[in-house]
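ZP: hey, is the pyridoxal-5'-phosphate complex queued? I don't see it on the tracker
AM: it wasn't, my bad. submitting now with these inputs:
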Amino acid sequence: MLPVPTINPFTPPRRTLMGPGPSDVYPEVLAAQSKPTIGHLDPLFVGMMDELKSLIQYAFQTKNEMTLAVSAPGSAGMETCFVNLVEPGETVIVCRNGVFGERMRQNVERVGATAVVVDNDWGEPVCPQKVAQALADNPQAKFLAFVHAETSTGALSDAKTLCQLARQHDCLTIVDAVTSLGGVELRVDDWGIDAIYSGSQKCLSCVPGLSPVSFSPKAVEKLSQRATPVQSWFLDQSLVMGYWGSGSVGGKRSYHHTAPVNALYALHESLRLLANEGLEQAWQRHQQMHQTLKTGLEKMGLTFVVDEASRLPQLNAVYIPDGVDDGAVRTQLLENYNLEIGAGLGALAGKAWRIGLMGFGARRENVALCLRALEEVLAQ
Ligand code: PLP
């Protein structure tokens, strides 16, 4: 027998989360998650899932029948789109202007397809002219994949224009909305997005670990015409939909995997709060909080990585001033103010901080705390 470990219950501190995610979780969401667990095929739970589906449809602004929450984080949502839709030998145009575009490229290669990469510098949005050229140069391409809100830099790309270009070339679009959903304008049906995924832990201010996903009828058709089975059993949407509703035999849900019951209560609550506030109001609130934060940061002499025209309100990447110790500042913020801001990622590691204003975190108290704490720490 191994000795009995003596371990106390884990008691996390109450931090203010202003990094790139997870964001501050709504108290109502934490309360929803601690409600009694019921069976994942209990009729009451199934009814809750139906509501959840309509709430995800509202957040994405889509009528897509194939809309659900993947029982895993945003990376699994990304993988869901690529493994279901892209077949070996196909060509995908992948836009890369930060860490997550590169991850899309890796997904394409792992399904045995060819990625044609359209590069933009870190901090820039995806350039529509470059994409138009890549589409013209690669008539065999079946997909255009891009990140709407690049969390590694804080750049927002013009999803509407990129989707228009893809349609002109008969390409389906795969869009990463992990950081954009709930924080900036996003209209899946109006913009003609075919496959989209997000994450629960950013502007939805839900607990981490779930990924809302939606496929257009054209994407569903592509999935149904696959010559080869989806290589991932767990992420195969045609099987998952037997559990989530449409596609189920005789309207009955069938067991696919044990749903993360309490986490889905949490997502239901966070999306309900978003719907109560109203999507457009939430987008505006993010913008207003960004303006207040920006004014304060600029007064301190900090400069933004991304130009104003394509700057995300919910992810503020600012350069670390010369001579300032990145790690020491973030440690002081955490230890003395219980405040987390994000480090730079990839090419911006050690060069920038990423200050998140996401969901419940996009509020006046957070902006005020962040400005006061940063000012005091930098003054030292
Ligand atoms: N895509 C983007 C744009 C992200 O910001 C993230 C996470 O930060 C992901 C994908 C991956 O999501 P997750 O960490 O939930 O797996």
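AM: back. The chain has two domains: 16-22+279-379, 27-275.
ZP: great, adding it to the tracker
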